[in-house]
Amino acid sequence: MMNMKKGLLSGMLALALTSTLLVSTNVSANNSSETNSPLSYTLVTKGYDWGPAVYKVVLNTGVPVEGKSLTKDTFKVLAERKYPMINFETQQKYDGADSNSRTIERTYLSDENGNKTSLPTAQYITIEMKVHPDLGTASPFHFDLQSFTNQYVDLQYTIIQQKSLQDQAGNPVEHLTTRPGTPHMMIEQGVERFDTSGKFNYKDSKYGQINLTYASYMPEQKSKKPLIIWLHGAGEGGTDPRIALLGNKVTALADESIQKYFGDAAVLVPQTPTFWMNDGTGQYTKDGKSMYTRSLTALIKQYVKQHAADIDTDRIYIGGCSNGGFMTLNMLLANPDYFAAAYPSAEAYDDALLSKKDIATLKNIPIWFTAAGADQTVDTSKTSTATYKRLIAAGAKHVHYSYFDNVLDTSGLYKKGNGNDAPYEYNGHWSWIPVLNNDISRDFNGKPVKIKGKAVSLMEWLANQKK
């Protein structure tokens, strides 16, 4: 069961999300040009295919700095992460930590959010740093083996000034080395578009009080629009919806690259305090039932009702990864006439648990499955592949299945390394990466999926489905 749990974490190694750390006190620093200028910094995170990473430090110098005096090696950046650990043999808890010097790629004058400026002087300096799927110290997350979820780390950065700078008057600026007490905060790019305060309380007739949290995105346009629902994997459970947004690159659902297909769509990201496959005992389901089916259904319907003027109830789409892929099928079976289409990836619903009646129900719902043969967490031959073949045999007309040998980087930015320039290969379970990149267009037979003769991507196909 331990291996099963490890595998069904949609992002157990995914580097997810940043802690929104804000220290409100200011500290004084000695400065050759101004003796009491404030010094602070902001860490900037964004989501990558493997999860979020800190890729910028924005230093508020407190004085106007000459850009021409700034070079790539003006600073050195040290990152330190602290997080709780446990010795499972002795049950002794202790503080874990790791640290590393971050590789600086470029340094420039900017605004307070890290956007480069063309002005000759500015008080903000942005330091961009290298990120990579294997660079754990760039992550603001640690995977907690006790809860099997991603958790924020205590993140501390030290920016060390190695070369003198000049202010606009030509005076030396040499006070820019930070200390543990230097005020700092975090920007989570993409998350700011979402409302992460959603809470839903439900009294279940069998399981008692269930409290769910959720993130949501609603475009400003006042018109009926589709609703895209994403159900996270086991590693993103908890009570902080930011984890569900950044444990995987779910913020991409609000990006223009996906939104353009829908003509603007609302996005709903529910979060369970444990995991979707929980059968009510804290164990993984053995019969396909989840303690969260009724509460999740109620949450979705309440959200739709609250936004009745904004949501087109004929265009509600549901999908998710791993545990969330399981829950996608679970929700389709519980609400067969509610969703216009579904897009599960690396789904963990054991096909042996699906009855002939279940298959007869699912065959009438447009579904696009995604999985990879390299998946060592979920046996695709007993889940998505088996279910897809049964659906096709049952006469399903609108069911597709993109099946990859493995999950590779398609950006061209990341390589296997050690002299091997082949694309970086991700964990085979992470087949949601091409889903959230909308990098999927072929069916199980290798041929393009088409609508009215036109080849379409997964998201374009999804946007065209209507009850």
From TrEMBL:
<dbReference type="InterPro" id="IPR001375">
    <property type="entry name" value="Peptidase_S9_cat"/>
</dbReference>
<dbReference type="InterPro" id="IPR050955">
    <property type="entry name" value="Plant_Biomass_Hydrol_Est"/>
</dbReference>
<feature type="domain" description="Esterase Ig-like N-terminal">
    <location>
        <begin position="40"/>
        <end position="172"/>
    </location>
</feature>
<keyword id="KW-0732">Signal</keyword>
<dbReference type="GO" id="GO:0006508">
    <property type="term" value="P:proteolysis"/>
</dbReference>
<dbReference type="GO" id="GO:0008236">
    <property type="term" value="F:serine-type peptidase activity"/>
</dbReference>
<dbReference type="Pfam" id="PF18435">
    <property type="entry name" value="EstA_Ig_like"/>
</dbReference>
<feature type="signal peptide">
    <location>
        <begin position="1"/>
        <end position="29"/>
    </location>
</feature>
<keyword id="KW-0378">Hydrolase</keyword>
<dbReference type="InterPro" id="IPR041172">
    <property type="entry name" value="EstA_Ig-like_N"/>
</dbReference>
<dbReference type="Pfam" id="PF00326">
    <property type="entry name" value="Peptidase_S9"/>
</dbReference>
<feature type="domain" description="Peptidase S9 prolyl oligopeptidase catalytic">
    <location>
        <begin position="302"/>
        <end position="351"/>
    </location>
</feature>
<dbReference type="InterPro" id="IPR029058">
    <property type="entry name" value="AB_hydrolase_fold"/>
</dbReference>
<protein>
    <submittedName>
        <fullName>Prolyl oligopeptidase family serine peptidase</fullName>
    </submittedName>
</protein>
